[in-house]
Amino acid sequence: MATPHIAAQPGDFAPDVLMPGDPLRARRIAKVLTDARLVTEVRGIAGFTGTWEGRPVSVLASGMGVPSISIYATELFRFYGVRRIVRIGTCGGIGPHLALGDVVVATAAHTDSAVTATRLPGVHYSHAPSFALAAAAVQAAHDEPGTTVHAGAVLTSDAFYSGESDLLTHLAARGTLAVEMEAAGLYATADVEHGEALALMTVSDLIGRDVEMSAAERETTFDRALRIALAALAA
Ligand code: HPA
Fold it and tell me: What is the ipTM of this complex?
């Protein structure tokens, strides 16, 4: 069996899938899992299934943006029996109290994406995660020494280069924590497909403040986010 974007057999994916944006991160996660095997590699988006502390876990990259994550999440939920997807990615902090390396648990995702905004005409759809996964991730982040975790809304934007706009200022004034490009698509897909989802991001840059993480900091904080995601799935 294959879908247009995944060439795996039924049963190849575990019910729980970790979803980084970057295919190289997926390979790196596979190295952390026990006995991970390659289950798909269409378009260079490699998927792996292994175990973590005895529990089966898969990993598949989402690519960038709502259209891409919506495709992969739909095919996993609909055709491969996947029940829970946790995105582990990065985001740009917009809240004034955020710092590089902080963890953001997206308990809501505003979006400018036409993919989800047009799904139900006349409705301003609320994009929200699985409460159980979000609560478990916040708890797991608290258990990681030296970690600051924020639970709140993010903006899922179709544009990485959004130009001059006051939009982020207005959203920050309303408590929005960060901007990224996938959470709302994942949450809307989980709703349609009766799955569970969570987006867990590390702050990799602070928008409007000219700072970003070093390569070494990215690796350390990524490993921490991975531990938090795995702990949330095991809770
Ligand atoms: N914008 C959108 N997505 C992101 C950003 C950003 O600044 N940083 C990390 N992911």
Answer: 0.92
